[in-house]
Design brief:
The chain is 49% helix and 15% strand. With 164 residues, the chain is an alpha/beta fold. The longest helix has 28 residues. The chain binds 5-O-phosphono-beta-D-ribofuranose. The site of 5-O-phosphono-beta-D-ribofuranose has 11 residues, from strand 3.
Length: 164
């Protein structure tokens, strides 16, 4: 078993369908991760334990998804110097805008990276890019991934142009 290098946490099991995008991206690049439910307001002691132990446990990046007031990414960032990527989860009447503003408006001194509402896939990809700083094999895989995206758009372009 590989040692997890990315810790993926979310405030509730109800966040999992959204956060699956991050897990899928990490799987695609064969990046080992650990996933858990850690709630900032319902299990604050577990959040403290997780955040404080994250570095010595070998994680290199944390991804934290939460909806509503979304304290989890910022609170975890306050407990570790590891980079934390927050995923605003759309949950409730404000459709994720509440979570987005809560995460992106982190006061100065403790940064939190933020992706678009519900875009956990980008959180996974950003984590891979962070790891690739020290992993030439991952960087190569990222170049291959980007090339595949370009090829898909080239195919779209050809289809659209030939349909007119
Ligand atoms: C937040 O409250 C969670 O991140 C979730 O997005 C939201 C609702 O949680 P549940 O009521 O579905 O458990 O803490």
């Amino acid at each position: 078993m590989s040692v997890p290098v990315v810790g993926v946490v979310m405030g509730s099991e109800s966040d999992l369908p959204t956060m699956q995008g991050a897990l899928d991206a990490l799987d695609e690049f064969a990046v080992p991760y650990e996933v858990d439910v850690v709630s900032a307001h319902r299990t604050p002691e577990k959040m403290m334990r997780f955040g404080l132990a994250a570095e010595e446990r070998g994680f290199q990046v944390l991804i934290a998804g939460a909806g509503g007031a979304a304290h989890l990414p910022g609170m975890l960032a306050s407990l570790t110097t590891l980079p934390v990527i927050g995923v605003p989860v759309s949950n409730g009447p404000l459709q994720g805008i509440d979570a987005l503003l809560s995460i992106v408006q982190m006061p100065k001194g403790v940064p939190v990276a933020t992706v678009a509402v519900g875009n956990a896939r980008n959180a996974g990809l950003l984590a891979v890019q962070m790891l690739a700083i020290a992993r030439p094999d991952l960087r190569e895989d990222l170049h291959t991934f980007r090339k595949a995206q370009q090829d898909k758009v080239a195919q779209m372009s050809a289809r659209v142009r030939s349909s007119q």
